[in-house]
Amino acid sequence: MAISKDHYYRLGSEVAQERIEAATSLVSELSELGTKDDWQYALNRLIKGLITSRQSARFGFSMALTEILSELIQRKGDYEDITVEYYLNLLLNTTQIASSMKGKEERSVLFGRLFGLQVLINTKVLFNSSICDEEPILKFINYIIELSNLKSWLRETTIFTLLQFIRVFLSDETNQSKELKEKVIMTVLQLTNDQGLNLSSEGVAIYLTIPKLKRSKLAANIVNEKANWKNGDPFTKGNLPLLSKALKDVEVADPEGNETNKGGKNPKQKGSWSPRIPFVWDLILQEFNSIDEDIEEVSNENSKKRKKSSSKDSKRKQHKSVIDSNNISIHEFWKVVIDDSFYSEKSSHERKYWGFEIFSKFIKELNNPDSIQYLFTPNFMRCLVNQSAQSNRLLHKISSKALKTITDEAQAHPEKLNIIFKSLINENNGGTWNFDLITRSKTIDTLLSIKANNQVLLQLKDDLIQTLNEAVENQEEIDNNTFKKSNDNKIKWCLDKLIVVVRRNLVNLSTIEDNKVIEDIIKLLVKQTFFESSGKQQLSTHIKNICQEKLNSILAEVINLKRSDNTWAYFTLKYLLKLEESSKFKNLTEFDEEILVVKQETTDVLKTIVELYSATKVESKIDQLRCFELLYSMVLLQLYLGEDEAVQIIAELNMCYENTFSNEIDDNVDTSVVLTEIILSFISKQSNLLKKLAHTVWEFFICSEDASGKLRLNEGSLQLLFDVLCSKENKEGQQKLFEGEDEMEIVEDDDEEGKMEEEGKDDDDEEDDDDDEEEDEEEEEEEEEEDEDEGEPDSDEIESEYESANDGADVDNKDRITQLDRDTNIKLAKALGIPTGDSGEVKFDELDSSDDEEYESDSMDDDQMIAMDKQLSEIFRERQSVLANISSGNKRKAEVVQAKQTMVLFKNNILDLIEIFNKVKPNSIFNLYCVKPLITLINLTLNKELGVKAHKILKTKLNKTKITEEELTKAFSSNEEIEEFKVSLLNIITELQDNLNSKKSSNQSHLLACNQSCIIIAKNLILVDSSLVEQIIDIYSLSLKKWALNSKSNITPSLFFDFINWLNSKR
Fold first, then answer.
1. pLDDT tens for each residue of 468-521
2. Res 818: pLDDT
3. CA atoms in the 13 A half-sphere facing the CB of 97
4. pLDDT, averaged across the chain
């Protein structure tokens, strides 16, 4: 049976799997049925197939040829004449170049020869001493090196094939003799020299493939040596200029001044450029990594104490100890070969492209992280910044890719993070602190957002503080302006990034109680906020204000993190007091004697709390003491910051502290109410720090139980919250709530991300309740559809509030301005000596011509003119001061908008407190007390988000409240009180339904909330007393009757449907 010729056709298929199947079938049939002629035909046919112009066919034929040649060479008998040498001659004869060939045909033939030589390597017959002797191996080497010099575009690929052979031949996989291995390497070096490839990128690759210890010895034996590397090693010191030129593929002159083509020819220069960097860079990278490994090995060996060592080990150590001094370092190599060549101003875009690719390869594959710093050189940084800053730059894409590689590598290997970050901001090497700004990227921010271990974060912190200190020392005043100085932007950037380091790594930092990263940052901010250092450059007023903001920000981030001994607020205060006693620092905060006494007394109380805190082991008491320690520490810090209310809050805290921990309890002081008032004063300010402080105290003290097991929260405390929720969201509501006092201060703390995290906290809490919320999905969807129609209050609503709040204000202001103009005219006339009437009108007719001459300017001397000018300036200054105190229309309108925003924010914070209480005490009776105020808020507010948030709390939090007999027993001391409580709940249901019947709801959410609230209360009533179901049904029945008989009733049928469905589920 003849061998099928169809296999040869299928070897040229575009489908890889089909080629594999064809090669397998061909070899199988030849092994089973093939004669010598069939094998010979297959060999010839496959070799000829290599010179095809179809790349896929070349792959298929070379694959089949590898298997067939391997089989033929190892066969005995009739096949003994088929040897490696026979194959080489056959390949060379088949791939001869004719002068009549076109360029494309010549290219196919030469690549066919290369594939044929690669087949010999794949068969591994060259590495078997029993099959192949010295002569065919040397002939193979000669053919492949000659082929490399035929065409410049073929050289790199051919030398790559040769190096594949050398690597395998020198490895332990071969059984060739050591002498033959050295002879083969010597032959390669001699032929490389004869072809003039020594000082080329391929020549560098050949030398780097040879073991380092043998390079010099073998290179010294080259006959008729042309220009070559010093000591036969491209990476020996002294070869750096030659290496730079060779890797740029430019003609290299003989370093000794001889002609490079003497006795031979120079290699042709490559005429085309490819975006793929040459493979020699992989070998260079391996060279540097091997040097680092050798040095590390020597270091490890020297660190081990051994009493005895052999002479052989001693010599090896001695040799390795001088590796670093005899070879080109990565620092020297990168500066000369890369930075001064590939990134120089005169370099082409193609070379710079290669430079970016080489940088990406090195930063990813260098084993020694310390070597990465040498990659960030001045020219490279200049190119990186310029090319990445503008999208229309030719190399913008590759430079952006380099930035992405930087961040990805730091993410994958955090041990490189510090080096990369420091290199990017190192101004000595072209870096800059505002790197992200000028490159329009987020490289620095991304690096600082990487989750790293404590050691890495410590180094990052040290680098930022060092940069900040250098900026402070080198700053200059701007036109004697103490408010702002020359390096303020740089200092602010450092402060911003210090906070980012803490914020983005808060989870890792929280695992270490006394974390030095947080401690050092707080110490820095305390120094710069409250003190001046003697004999040093001082920060501008602008930066000191920013330091205060950053101190508030970091305290807001770490306020709930535990320390081994006390809170972070107390740590901050303790360090402040320590610096206050030091003679090296001057405190910028000055206190009068009264406040100094308050400060000292409060400090003494704090010390007592800390002592009690460390002595007690009762968990509940520890939380109470921690809250008071936190409160006292924060209020004292506010005192240092000049907060007006701090002294009053300290007095209130003293009452609460004494009432909580002393044996004598003052019945006139309700600790819960007083602390709630303090908490409200905190959350009324737009400060994330005070908001988190309020949440902490509310959760761990107000919402906790006292020693008797009774909840500290009471109706008085809740009423304070409800008063806020039920207030109008305008200037009138604000003034009524705070009794005219301007307590709604704005305290900026540069903590937008922290606020976002707080807002996102609601969603985190709801994850635990997903199962219970499934039953409310339909209602939520319905509500969201309705809420979309509500929207925000438009400008007409603001105008109406503005007009109602300012009736008569315009008339009054107009009268004041008229009177001001009259008074000003009289003063001006008096100063100029001009007669006026009582109305302020100037009487020009009373001035005679003779008197006019007295007031001519040329008749006044200089002193009179100066005095007149001062008098007139004072008059106009007084007028401007009065005008500033008169509210203009725009100013009053802005006040209305500000009052509305402030009240909405305040109510949002109140809802947070209610949500925290529900999380801590989900089954408390006080949850039901919150129902009615939330309903009022939903109907009252014009802010969509606020209404949605209140409704969300009602249906996802309060809806899960389940009052038990135990809760009633804790809350009430007698059965009469319990009965009153039940009646009050029934009254709430009745009142909600009566309001729905008689009053129109402002939005659909209010109707839904009322329906849900009635069921929430009814559900809890039946839990504590099942006999109340009849009364509840009676209430609904009465409402149903009113709805049916009154066509104008605002009750919706859903009220009854929801109730019936709920009753049906409980039957």
1. 999 988 888 776 666 778 888 999 999 999 999 999 888 888 777 668 899 999
2. 77
3. 16
4. 83
- pLDDT grade, residue 857 (50/70/90)? very low
**Per-residue pLDDT at 759:** 42
Q: Is the pTM of this model over 0.85?
A: no
Distance of CA 281 to the CA centre of its chain: 33
The tokens of 516 are what? 């030095």
Contact between 404 and 358 under an 8 Å Cβ cutoff? The reply is no
Of 57-66, 506-515, 640-649, 966-975, least confident by mean pLDDT is 506-515
Residue 656 CB partners (closer than 8 Å, separation 6+): 628, 669, 671, 674, 675
Question: Assign residue 840 a region: left if phi > 0, alpha if psi is -120 to 50, beta otherwise?
Answer: left
Sign of CA dihedral 583, 585, 588, 589: negative
The Cα-based distances of 149 to 146, 271, 696 in angstroms read 5, 14, 78
Report residue 687 CA to chain centroid gap: 23
In angstroms, rounded to a whole number, what is the distance separating the alpha carbons of residues 851 and 105?
115
Least confident among 472-476, 715-719, 814-818 = 814-818
Instruction: Give the single-character DSSP code of 96.
Output: P
**Distance between CA 474 and CA 956 in Å, rounded?**
57
- Check if the beta carbon of residue 156 is closer than 8 Å to that of residue 176: no
Sequence-ordered list of residues with C-beta below 8 angstroms from that of 848, at least 6 positions apart, any chain: none
- Helix ranges restricted to H, 11-101: 16-33, 36-49, 55-74, 84-94
* Cα separation, 387 vs 398, whole angstroms: 9
Q: CA 239, CA 154: separation in Å to the nearest integer?
A: 26
Element of type H or E holding 485: strand 481-485
Q: How far is CA 329 from the centre of its chain?
A: 34
CA–CA separation, 620 and 705 (whole Å): 8
Task: Determine what percent of the chain is predicted with pLDDT higher than 70.
Answer: 83
Length of the chain as a residue count = 1067
Tokens representing residue 52 in the block: 């095809």
810: tokens are 């315009």
DSSP string covering 705-760: B-TTS-BS--HHHHHHHHHHHTS-SSHHHHHHHHTT---------S-HHHHHHHHT
* Burial of 533: CB neighbours in 10 Å, binned 0-12, 13-18, 19+: middle
Single-letter residue type at 895: E
Are 91 and 44 in contact by the 8 Å Cβ rule? The answer is no
What is the distance between the alpha carbons of residues 38 and 36, in angstroms, rounded to a whole number?
5
Q: Which residue has the higher pLDDT, 844 or 156?
A: 156
One-character DSSP codes across 111-169: HHHHHHHHHHHHHTGGG-TTT--HHHHHHHHHHHHHHHTT-HHHHHHHHHHHHHHHHHH
- C-alpha closest to that of 124 among 160, 71, 81, 64: 71
Highest-confidence range of 438-447, 582-591, 638-647, 1044-1053, by mean pLDDT? 438-447
What confidence category does residue 616 fall into, taking pLDDT thresholds of 50, 70 and 90? confident
Q: Residue holding tokens 């009814």?
A: 1018
**Calpha distance 1004→1019 (Å, rounded):** 23
Q: Quick one: tokens of 936?
A: 């009022």
DSSP bridge partners of 842: 836
- Please tell me the predicted confidence (pLDDT) of residue 553: 93
The 3-state DSSP class for residue 236 equals: strand
Residue whose pair of structure tokens reads 């080497």 in the numeric block: 141
**pLDDT, tens digit (0-9, with 9 covering 90-100), for 283-305:** 999 999 987 665 555 455 555 54
Residue 479, classified by CB atoms within 10 Å of its CB into exposed (0-12), middle (13-18) or buried (19+), is exposed
Residues 923/970, Cβ–Cβ less than 8 Å: no
Residue with tokens 């997903």: 770
**pLDDT at residue 774 is higher than 80:** no
Look up residue 572 and give its amino acid: T
Who wins on pLDDT, 324 or 338?
A: 338
Residue 517: CB atoms within 10 Å = 23
